[in-house]
Amino acid sequence: MDAKKKVLEVMKKEAAPMNAGLITEKSGLDRKEVDKAMKALKDEGLIVSPKRCFWEPAP
User: Fold this and answer.
1) Residues 6+ apart with CB under 8 A from 30
2) Rounded distance, CA 54 to CA 17, Å?
3) Residue 7 in contact with residue 16, Cβ under 8 Å?
4) Which SS3 state, helix, strand or coil, does residue 4 take?
5) What is the distance, to the nearest Å, from the Cα of residue 56 to the centroid of all Cα atoms in its chain?
6) What residues does each domain of the chain span?
7) 18, burial (CB in 10 Å: exposed 0-12, middle 13-18, buried 19+)
8) What digits encode the pLDDT tens for the residues 36-53?
9) pTM
10) What is the pLDDT of residues 5-38, one digit of tens each?
């Protein structure tokens, strides 16, 4: 499973806005991988930020 899918899966399972540190903790991925995956997901419009530094899957 690639990092983008793993990050999105963790976010959907948690069902609450999460920051990169929490996603790193829950997914077991390296922080750099999480940051890179989150940037790609944001650019694709798959995640949104309801408040500063927290992200959740797009509706």
Assistant:
1) 24
2) 5
3) no
4) helix
5) 7
6) 17-53
7) buried
8) 999 999 999 999 999 999
9) 0.89
10) 999 999 999 989 999 999 999 999 999 999 999 9
